[in-house]
Amino acid sequence: MNTPTLLKRHRRTPANAALALALAIAGVGLWAPSATADPVSVGYTCTGPGAPDGVQSLQVTVTAPATVAQGGTAELTLEVATELKVPFGIPAQSVTGELDLQLGGAGSGRVTAGGFTNTSAIPGGAAVTLTGGTASVRLDTAGTATFSPGDAAVHVFGVTVNCAVSGTAPVAATTEVTAS
Fold this sequence. Notes:
Helix content is 11%, strand content 52%. With 180 residues, it is mainly beta. Strands 1, 2, 3, 4, 5, 6, 7, 8, 9, 10 and 11 form an 11-stranded mixed β-sheet that branches.
């Protein structure tokens, strides 16, 4: 193998790791007294250096407060997992990201959660889980508010990969907004 081929392959490795980590970012959870949440599968199409072709599936777990008083705030957090394996070890807290959360039902619009990271090192060949995303959502209308994962961005080793929901994301959590 000649030197230019080795250099070319070496330069792609961080971008490929960025993509694998990007695919691990895709969900949001709520914190407080909460309802039990099961992960939902969300398809993403990603663009940027090292982004894979096709739709990639992420498992997003959202934990939502069971209830919030009308006009109150739901504090959001997240956990996202992917089956993609990183090609080499990634140091703890070397990946950051943001995720839009689409509001429905008694909620409307979107909110962006930030602060996602890998809290521990990820060994080469391992799947990726990112945690720690947070956002606050004020809920002003009585009824059931729904939360669905939206578009995401992941930053690792100076590379940004943008991921858009492919199709329609399922509702990942609900909160009952009680009338005041």
